[in-house]
């Protein structure tokens, strides 16, 4: 099992005065392990993993903003695009897909 040393960029969600930035930062850091595990499942070589950004996803409604999950954007060195891993608040993988000019791994590409 490859051990990824991702150049992670943690970007905290900007929540309103009633929100908790600690919660967003915690989810981002906590979900990094799930992102590493998903990369290993997909058998992506370590040298193909570029800059990675993990951030909390916010949902706005009439009550305010809520953390809806976590999203990881991983630049791939083998193509001009990114691998996106969407996770729940508890870091369970919801879906994985590609953006840009990447077509690999039998994943949906947009």
Could you explain how this protein is built, in words?
This protein has one domain: Nuclear Transport Factor 2, Chain: A, CATH 3.10.450. It is globular and about 45 Å long. It has one helix and five strands. It starts with 7 loop residues before the first strand and ends in a 10-residue tail after the last strand. The protein is α+β, with helices and mostly antiparallel strands and 110 residues long. A five-stranded mixed sheet has the order 1-2-3-4-5.
What number is the mean pLDDT?
77
As residue ranges, the low-confidence spans are 7-22
Tally of individual domains: 1
- The CATH topology is Nuclear Transport Factor 2, Chain: A
Report the top-level CATH class: Alpha Beta
User: Which sheet architecture does the biggest sheet show?
Assistant: 5 strands, mixed
Shape category = globular
- Alpha-beta classification: alpha+beta
Which percent range describes the beta-strand content? 35-45%
Task: Based on the coordinates given, report the CATH architecture.
Answer: Roll
Note the gap between the termini: 28 Å
Radius of gyration: 14 Å
Main β-sheet, spatial strand arrangement: 1-2-3-4-5
State the main characteristics.
about 40% strand, about 110 residues, 5-stranded mixed beta sheet, alpha+beta, Nuclear Transport Factor 2, Chain: A, 1 helix, 5 strands
């Amino acid at each position: 099992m490859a051990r990824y040393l991702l150049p992670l960029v943690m970007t905290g969600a900007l929540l309103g005065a009633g929100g908790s930035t600690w919660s967003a930062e915690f989810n981002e850091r906590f979900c990094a392990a799930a992102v590493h595990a998903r990369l290993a499942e997909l058998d992506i070589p370590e040298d193909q993993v570029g800059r990675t950004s993990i951030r909390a996803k916010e949902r706005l409604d009439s009550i305010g903003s809520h953390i809806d999950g976590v999203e990881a954007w991983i630049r791939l060195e083998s193509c001009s695009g990114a691998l996106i891993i969407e996770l729940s608040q508890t870091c369970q993988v919801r879906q994985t897909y590609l953006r840009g000019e990447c077509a690999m791994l039998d994943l949906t590409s947009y």
